[in-house]
Amino acid sequence: MNENTIGRSLRPVVLLIALVHLVLGVLGFFFLPEANQTGENTVWIFSATGMLNIIRTIVGVLGVAAVLKPSAIYGYTWMIFIAFAGLTAFGVLSAATTSAGDTVNVNWADNVLHALTSLAALAVGIVVARSAGRKPARRRADA
């Protein structure tokens, strides 16, 4: 299997990641009334701040683009792994300290979502990397 074939078989996983974040990001823009205090804007159980909505929408759009071009899945998954691992670390510290000046304003549900997204992206990235490293053995013509 080449990288393109592996990328095609992993498209549903990447599409799920992308659509979850795209839906949360787009819906989040509708739950940002100016009268609400920071931390009261939510989509279901997830925070809906302007910064998170932008991040989630970008992740969703890039994910849909990666699904349309399977060779881009490798780069997308590693980018998402690194970004969401950092966002998870930041979110855990932020949620634990509840600092008032936090513009991202993540809660524990967001931290779990970000950690699961990071782990799923890591798993897909490793599968793609390992399968790309395995090349079929060539037979020598003169043997």
Would you write up a description of this structure?
With 143 residues, this protein is an all-alpha fold. 68% of the residues lie in helices and 3% in strands. It has helices at residues 3-9, 11-30, 50-68, 73-97, 108-133; strands spanning 42-43, 46-47. Strands 1-2 form a two-stranded antiparallel sheet. Strand 1 (42-43) and strand 2 (46-47) form a beta hairpin. The model has no long low-confidence stretch (mean pLDDT 81). The chain crosses the membrane at residues 12-32, 44-68, 80-100, 112-132.
Instruction: Work out the number of β strands.
Output: 2
> Average pLDDT across residues?
81
Report the portion of residues in β strands.
Answer: under 5%
Oligomer: single chain
Q: Number of domains in the coordinates? A: 1
Q: Specify the number of helices.
A: 5
Overall 3D shape:
globular
Given helix and strand content, the structural type is: mainly alpha
List low-pLDDT spans.
Answer: none
The strand line-up of the biggest sheet is: 1-2
Radius of gyration: 19 Å
Which series of helices and strands comes N to C?
HHEEHHH
Q: What is the makeup of the main sheet?
A: 2 strands, antiparallel
**What is the rounded distance between the termini?**
25 Å
Give the % helix: 55-70%
Q: Concise description?
A:
The chain has 143 residues and is an all-alpha fold. It is 68% helix and 3% strand.
